[in-house]
Structure formats: C-alpha cells, structure tokens
Specification:
Kinase-like_dom_sf; Prot_kinase_dom; kinase; Protein kinase domain-containing protein; ATP-binding; Phosphorylase Kinase, domain 1; 2 helices
C-alpha cells in the first residue's frame, strides 16, 4: 500500500533525506496525503533504538489517544 501511495518510491516523490533514510510524499486511496520514511538497511541499530523509544512513548501512562 505504501509503495503504491508513493508511486513505488519514485524519485519525484522524494521530499528529503533523514538520518534513517529518505522521506517520500504519497497519497492514500481515500485521498489523504502522507509522508513515508523508507528506512535504510544500514541503520539497523538506530532502528532498534527508535522502535524501543516508540514503545516507551506508546506505553507511557500519561499519554492518551486523540481522535
């Protein structure tokens, strides 16, 4: 789905480059515009750190979901 939304990560959809990999603009089937970070394979340790931090944020007792 994300590959389709970004035109298969086409270079024309690339917004920029970050520490974890390039960022692409895309559009979901419902028309919602999104940004997708395609993680580079060379950032394995950094990805694990990011996922750990993400888990800590999600599990934080003072966070609530906004809708």
């Amino acid at each position: 789905m994300l590959a389709n939304a970004t035109d298969r990560f086409h270079s024309a959809s690339k917004l920029g480059q970050g520490g974890f990999g390039p960022v692409y603009k895309g559009k979901l089937p419902d028309g919602q515009e999104i940004a997708v970070k395609k993680l580079s394979q060379s950032s394995g340790i950094l990805i694990n750190m990011l996922l750990f931090m993400f888990d800590q944020i999600i599990l934080h007792p003072k966070l609530v979901t906004l809708k």
